[in-house]
Each structure stands twice: as C-alpha cells, then as structure tokens.
Write a structure and sequence with these properties.
binds NADP nicotinamide-adenine-dinucleotide phosphate; 8-stranded mixed beta sheet; Rossmann fold; globular; alpha/beta
C-alpha cells in the first residue's frame, strides 16, 4: 500500500481546529499545515503564553483564520476556564489536537494544584480541557480528537496509582515522561470505548507518536543529546504529516495508533499497535476514574 501523504487528506473546508501548544515545534508545524494545505475556517492556537502565541501567529502570516486561546495546562482552573471561553466563542469544534507537552524536568516539579508536572500538563490538563470542550465536539457533524504520545510510552510498565505524584519513589525524568505518554494512549483508547458505549458515532479519537523531532522539546536535556539531535532528528515540519493524518484521515477508527514508518523516528505515518499496557482496558478505566478525581471533573460522553 502506498504511503499516506498530504494528497490523501480529505477536504477540510470550514472546519474549526484547535491545537494545544502550537506556538512552537510540532504544534506550530501542524497549524501551518492546516493553514497552507487546507481550507479550514479557523486554527485556534491554545497556548500558555500570549506573547509566544502572537509571535507564532505573525510567523504564520496572521489573519482572520487564526485565533489565540489562553491555556495553561499546568493549572486545572486555566484548563477549565479556557474550555468555557471556547464554548462562548464558538458553536462547535471539529478537530482537537492535544499536542502540548514537556519532557520530564531535571527535578520533580508540580502543577498549580500539586500534581507531578509532566503528568499534569500532558494528561490531566488535557483531560480537563477535553471534558470542558466536549459539548462543542458533540455539535460538530464529524469531529476528531488527536492525542500526541511518544515512543516513550512503551517504556512505562504501568501507571503507579499508589504514587501518582512521584512523592515516595526516587524521581526520574524519563520515568515521569514515559508514564505521562502512556496516559495519553490510555486516555484516547478509553475515550473511544466510552464513545462506543454512549453511542457517540460522529467523533473519532486517535493517538500517535510523531517521531523524533529536532524541536525545543529537548532544550533542558543534557548537552550530548542536544549535540547529536540535529544528526538524528528531523525538523518538526517533516513530522507534522503524522499529526495531519491523525487529524484528518477518515478511514481511521477510534483507538488507532499511528507511528512514523522508518524506525518510529521519521517517515510516513503508518498504523501500528501501541504497547500491550497501553491497550489494557482495565488500566485505562482506572486512569479515567483517577483523572476525574484529580481534576474534580466528571467526563460524561453522551448528550445531555
Ligand atoms: N520532539 C520529539 O522528538 C517528540 C517525540 C515524541 C513525542 N513528542 C511529543 O510531541 C508534542 C510536541 O512536542 P514538540 O517536540 O513540538 O515540543 P516543543 O517545541 O517544546 O512544544 C511543546 C509545546 O507545549 C507547550 N506547553 C508546555 N507546557 C505547557 C503548559 N503548561 N500549558 C500549555 N502548553 C504547554 C509549549 O509551550 P511553551 O512554548 O510556552 O513552553 C510548546 O508550545 C509533545 O506532546 C511531545 O511529548 C515529541
């Protein structure tokens, strides 16, 4: 079968797209692809820094099709108020790309509400925001939720609910990152199952691993990695295709996991399977319950 490419993208005319963490890296490349390669009505840059988002919007050429939404995923109040604000501004949302993330910082850090930062931003903030904008996705005639995970999800053996905040065990940057990226896959797969149960048929939830991008993502990593990065990683613009397939390919079913073809580093997006742990429905259901408890937000999928 031929590789999936931009030419396979279905018509996106009139769609309203929101991408979290779109002022840089893969999120910015994805915003650019939507603007230049499709006829979407709006691309909403949901970012924590208005200044950085404004600079990104200038880089993208500005204009009516761009919009900024203030969203700090390290603060659940911000995630909830951003969702409310979006519900006031728009009557539907067609495509939600949950892209923002960070690699585990050198030292344990926490969100505003005291959760371990990487899990807090990559998963809990996105969970609360998605629950808040769910009514808008239900109003779309054909909606899509895209989770952006990582190959690192395969390194996590489970979600440690006994020490969810890494307060008891020794802190490990790669440990918090791989667990957070495992949570990204579990969340999307569970969303798909719950949509099935609730009879929601017009929303599709897929998850992907973008590949190895030479982005600002590795800014806090050791100098060895930062030095070799340009030799082994490609520019975010080369990997945006993976996000675009996740966001647009109508042949994909909920729960699908996309991975770049070449060594999972780069190349065309292909359908593969996530790790066995990431496909465990019991673990996913437990994470869902934990996320509702942490965010103090019930996530009901059926229409009221
Ligand atoms: N780069 C890779 O090789 C690679 C590999 C696998 C997976 N990924 C995944 O791809 C996604 C994008 O990464 P990237 O490479 O494009 O990195 P990036 O250039 O560092 O972009 C990350 C984005 O997330 C935003 N962000 C961080 N903390 C946030 C918060 N508290 N609230 C809202 N936004 C926040 C950042 O905003 P600021 O600019 O304000 O910090 C930035 O816009 C991440 O989920 C990452 O896990 C990347």
């Amino acid at each position: 079968m031929a590789d999936w490419g931009y030419g396979d993208m279905p018509d996106q005319t009139g769609k309203i797209v929101l991408i979290t963490g779109s002022n840089s890296g893969l999120g910015l490349a994805c915003a650019r692809d939507f603007l230049t390669k499709t006829k979407v009505e709006k691309v909403i840059l949901a970012c924590r820094s208005e200044k950085n988002a404004q600079e990104a919007m200038e880089e993208l050429g500005g204009g009516e099709r761009l919009e900024f939404l203030q969203l700090d995923l390290a603060d659940l109040d911000s995630a909830k108020s951003a969702a409310k604000e979006l519900c006031l501004r728009h009557d539907r949302l067609d495509t939600l790309v949950l892209n923002a993330g960070l690699s585990g910082p050198g030292k344990r850090a926490t969100t505003k509400q005291g959760f371990e930062l990487t899990m807090g931003v990559c998963h809990l903030g996105h969970f609360a925001f998605t629950a808040g904008v769910w009514p808008l996705l239900l109003k779309s005639s054909k909606a899509r939720v895209v989770g952006v995970s990582s190959m690192a999800h395969t390194w996590a053996k489970t979600i440690d609910f006994e020490d969810f905040n890494w307060e008891k065990k020794a802190y490990a940057a790669m440990g918090v990152y791989s667990e957070a990226k495992l949570a990204n896959v579990l969340f999307i797969k569970e969303l798909g199952r719950r949509m099935d149960d609730a009879g929601v048929t017009h929303v599709t939830a897929v998850v992907l691993q973008p590949g190895f991008a030479n982005s600002g993502f590795y800014r806090d990593q050791g100098c060895f990695l930062r030095c070799v990065l340009p030799c082994v990683a490609v520019g975010p613009d080369k990997l945006s295709l993976n996000l675009m397939r996740g966001a647009t390919d109508e042949s994909l079913q909920s729960g699908t996991y996309l991975d770049p073809k070449r060594h999972s580093f780069y190349g065309a997006p292909v359908v593969r399977e996530a790790s066995a742990v990431a496909c465990d429905p019991e673990l996913a259901a437990r994470l869902w319950a934990k996320s509702e408890e942490c965010t103090k937000q019930e996530f009901k999928l059926a229409r009221e």
